[in-house]
Amino acid sequence: MSSTDSPAGGDRYVAVHGSAGFKTLQRKTNSFLIRASVLFFGWWFIGTSLAAFAPGFFRQEIAGPVNVGLLFMFLTFVVVVTVCASYLRYAANRLDPLTDQVRAELEGEPR
Amino acid sequence: MSTILADPPPPIDNTWAVPGIAIPATIAAAVAVYFVVRSVRDSVRTPDDFLIANRRIGPVQNAVALASAPLMYSTLFIITGHIALNGYDAAMLLTAFTTSMVLGVLLFASPIRNLGGYSLGDIFAMRAEERSARKAAAVVTLLIYGMFTIISLAAIAFIFNRWFGLDNVAGLGASVLVVGLVTVLYAYMAGMAGVTRLLVFKAILTLTVVLVLTLLVLAEFNLNIFDILDKAEANRKDVPAGYDLLGPGREFGEGQHRLVHLSKLFCVAVGVAAIPFLFMRNFATTSGKDARRSAGWASMIVVGIYMCMALVGFASVAVLGPERIGVIKAHRDISLPKLVDELGGPVMIGVLAPIALLTIVGVYAALLINAVTCVTKDLNVARGRKPGRADELKDIRRNTLRIGIGSVLVGVAMLPVRTHIFIPTSIDLAGTAILPAVVYALFWRRFNTAGLKWIVYGGTALLFFLVIFSNGVTGPEDAIFPGHDIKFVDIEPGLITVPAGFLLGWLGSISSKERDDAAFAEMQVRALTGGLAPGVRKDAARAAAAAAGGPGGQSPNGAGPNGRGPAPGGPDDHGNQTRTPSEAR
């Protein structure tokens, strides 16, 4: 299976893929995504499992009608907004400038 | 997930509907939507205009449309009664939906848009042999389309029953037919651009309704949320096991049974993000950055709505008391209209009826565009058809009518069947057959055609096998065949099939010698940067279209002739890519 009709273009992807700029961009993107995913999905899966298997803990009252479970639910909503907002900010400030560089390298005239 | 269709007796005693207001309001809404859609009709001149709005949907509009599509009958209307009846455990479903939206932001939005393309097949074809990739994409996309369409159309019947007080079968069938055909007309008129407008219109109305409802219940309890929760607990409908409303237990239960609800939550959390008609919308945005932004904003909007809906759910039992809410599973969707009747009176019921219909119309219109895109870009290529340039748009429009009208007829015919199992099954299918394939395609060097086939066909076969032997098909009285009992799967099959999908993809890939490092490099570079190497793609017209939609500053060498845009062909069919579609203008 050939990758592209133009060997030069195909090589270019491979070259960019191996370039330092792309590696940096990839490392920064993936490390943020992995940390954010582990934190967020870990939080949600642990909380949901607690609701299923340790309901006594989630039923403990905190203030008035609010129990640990309701607090978890509220915090989950807050965490969703936080994760999304921090990803958007991180991507705009840290990733996009790098992306533009790598893209220029990719799309520029052949050297 | 929720029951949309289960309609076993006893019938409800509808004392709140006011068709005298609801019917004129619905006609007015239909006309308003017609003009909203028509306002973009003239911009549709090419197939790209029709299918992906020529990638001109800006981030704000896309965010609202993205937030709008998941607001369905189940997540807005049934969920209220579900929370009123089952309390905490039902509200957990809302967190599962938002979790899935985070997955969409982190994994799907920006890479998918950066790759360009139109359909799931375009993504698959970058890492697998083209025809197999497109066939697999078409199979899974159309399966989900079919199931989701049938339940969406059935939801229309329920809205006519719950909000208009219509209760004869012929009338309900005719109503579904009319609303369905009008939706097809909207999609036919202006394609993706029109559907996006429709979704934005729907979102604005839905947001208003949710806000008004929230304010009404807050006013009822003097802005004291603790009062609402206290009263909800005091008014709870007692269940035999004796669980509180505000704590876990009513759905989770005890022992092995706890896995049932846990598996439902898991499937929603991993599956919804991968439903094609929801995430394909990202192709229509102006750039990868805008897709990412709009997905992030959409999640925030949805979080706001779901927090309000959780409160409204608890408030409805607080206001109505244990006997007036819907107290059986099939009646969960009557709690909301009763609450509206109590707090807002008949005028509000009448005004809300068309908005309820509009939520479904929006979902079905988005589904239909997705199906048409799939048929045009995946199915036709998989079957070796290459439509001529001049009449491609005409073909697409004709397909819209054919698929749309055909689906509406099937939907009407399926009304008497209890197909509520289709919702969780289509979500499971997305998580099983699409999520692993997309993850591997983006991140795994070794992924190949065999891996893709194993995921899509193996995963789908396993899922349907498990579904046939689960609750929705036989066993309980709301199953498709309630008289029989062959079930042995109690949990949501997705808990098994989603990990199985990943496993199958791995096994399939390593079982085959096929390996294409260059295609992997291309995929990763393009997904991350949105760039395209010069001289690689011959589809310059598409590139021009993409460049027209892309914001400035992204392309250092200007809107050059180098194709920056979708790679409709797989890595191995560039011989065919000289066919340029008719987008150039």
List keywords for this structure.
heterodimer; A: 111 residues; mainly alpha; two-stranded antiparallel ribbon; 4 helices; 2 strands; 5% strand; disordered N terminus; B: 585 residues; Sodium/glucose cotransporter; 0% strand; globular; disordered C terminus
Description of the molecule:
The complex is a heterodimer of chains A (111) and B (585). By secondary structure, chain A is mainly α. Chain A has one domain (21-106). Chain A has four helices and two strands, in the order αααββα. A two-stranded antiparallel ribbon of chain A has the order 1-2. In chain A, helix 2 runs antiparallel to helix 4. Chain B is mainly alpha-helical and 585 residues long. Chain B has a domain at 19-416: Sodium/glucose cotransporter (Up-down Bundle), CATH 1.20.1730.10. Chain B contains 19 helices and no strands. Chain B has helices at 19-38, 47-52, 59-68, 73-86, 88-115, 120-124, 130-164, 169-220, 225-234, 258-271, 276-279, 288-320, 335-382, 392-413, 422-443, 449-468, 494-511, 517-529, 540-549. In chain B, helix 3 (59-68) packs parallel to helix 12 (288-320), helix 7 (130-164) runs antiparallel to helix 13 and helix 7 runs parallel beside helix 16. The longest helix of chain B is centred in the first third of the chain and has 52 residues, at 169-220. At the A-B interface, helix 1, helix 2, helix 3, strand 2 and helix 4 of A face helix 5, helix 9, helix 10, helix 12 and helix 18 of B.
Q: Could you give the topology of this structure?
A:
The complex is a heterodimer of chains A (111) and B (585).
Chain A: H1 7-18, H2 20-53, H3 55-59, E1 61-63, E2 66-67, H4 68-107
Antiparallel strand pairs in A: 1-2
Chain B: H1 19-38, H2 47-52, H3 59-68, H4 73-86, H5 88-115, H6 120-124, H7 130-164, H8 169-220, H9 225-234, H10 258-271, H11 276-279, H12 288-320, H13 335-382, H14 392-413, H15 422-443, H16 449-468, H17 494-511, H18 517-529, H19 540-549
Helix pairs in contact in B: 1-8, 1-13, 3-8, 3-12, 4-5, 4-12, 4-13, 5-10, 5-12, 5-18, 7-8, 7-13, 7-14, 7-15, 7-16, 8-12, 8-13, 8-14, 9-12, 10-15, 12-13, 13-14, 15-16, 15-17, 16-17
